[in-house]
Write a structure and sequence with these properties.
- The chain has about 200 residues and is an all-beta fold.
- It has one domain (about 10-185): Jelly Rolls.
- Helix content is about 0%, strand content about 55%.
- It has strands at about 10, 15-20, 25, 35, 45, 50-55, 60-65, 75-85, 85-95, 100-110, 110-120, 125-135, 135-140, 150-155, 165-170, 180-185.
- The strands form three sheets. The chain has a seven-stranded antiparallel β-sheet, with no helix packed on it. A seven-stranded antiparallel β-sheet has the order 2-3-16-7-12-13-14, with no helix packed on it. A two-stranded antiparallel sheet has the order 4-5.
Amino acid sequence: MKINKEQWKWTREPKNYSITDDKIEIITNPHTDLWQRTYYHFRNDNAPVLQIKTSEKFFSFIVKTKFETKVRFDQCGVVMYLDSANWIKGSIEYENEKIQHLGSVVTNNGYSDWATTEIDAGIKSMWYRFSRRMDDFCIECSENGIKFKQMRICHIHKASDEIQFGLYACSPENSSFKASFTNMEITECKWPAHNGQLPDEE
């Protein structure tokens, strides 16, 4: 899809970035992150986030990321940032020369969780697909943009109507790297309706 600069809005605009018809690039600022409370007991809420708004209840957002991460915790990926206490992010977080963490964070009412799996540190590109079904969400990943694998299904209590979603990149330590976002699409919901066990009667 062609990137309409008028539709995309920053939360904490970074010092260096570029937006063209088909690519968004962000140069991260040092000591930027998104996290709330859990386990580490700190609250970090200063990462740049670039998003568009929608009230559509069923859709998927697809994007390809490329990144030059090199310092611990460098990360970039997809995000749905409603406010400092309610958000989702899916990304690859650099750890060391051998491994990275492919994972997702869900933050509800000011508390974050983190679910990850280790992947090779040589991977420097990943596709993500963020899907909405009402107020439930799914994040998937793909190395080729064709076959997507589920990373996370979650519920965001505050996402009852209009939401905003998009991209983020940050460097929690004293680092800076370039993150590139291309091949963006907004499509009908690619996350199919559940057809297994029936829901409990309320």
